[in-house]
Amino acid sequence: MTRAAELHRGLGDHELEGSALLRLGTALEALDLPDEAAAGYARAATAFELAGSSGTGWALADLTAALVRADRAEEALPAAESSVEHNRRAAAEDPAGHSGVLARSLLLLAMLRVELRQDLPGGLTAAQEAAELFTPLAVARPEVHAASLRLALEQWAGVLDLLNRTLETEEVRRRLAEAGLDQA
User: Fold this and answer.
1) What pTM, to 2 d.p., does this model score?
2) Which is nearest to 62 in space by CA: 29, 85, 31?
3) How many angstroms separate the CA atoms of 43 and 37, rounded?
4) Can you give the pLDDT of all 184 residues of the chain as single tens digits?
């Protein structure tokens, strides 16, 4: 896949270069090599950026997740912020095609803000927005999105708990239970 990326770069086709690098990152993650996967995703983001592609946001979301798996949370936070920014623009143009990756980016951002104890109110907003975006996706395709909705709701409740907002925490946990997601 590296050869394919190099070939596409040489031909000036950065869109296909980015796609090849995304596949490389996925393969490296499957081999449990998150640092190497992160490097591939970073290169993919650069290629997509050169192509002016909405794939930049996808690559940045994958980069963020790989950095988290590699225990590099401080590096992951700016990638998550950039991912949200790119995916918010892409979702504004194509909500059906990009709301899921925007929700994923927001969830990662919320998790990182909590883990690093940076901007908990911003983490709360990100978790809430992720849950709201995942809700219709989970209704339409529960087999794909229910687990992500559960994570977003748990993150939302967790941040509320950290902020000592007990009544709101209970309400979100009740929402989890009513949807049957507390057992997922």
Assistant:
1) 0.90
2) 29
3) 10
4) 677 767 677 777 788 999 999 999 999 999 999 999 999 999 999 999 999 998 999 999 999 999 999 999 999 999 999 999 999 999 999 999 999 999 999 999 999 999 999 899 999 999 999 999 999 999 999 999 999 999 999 999 999 999 999 999 999 999 888 877 765 4
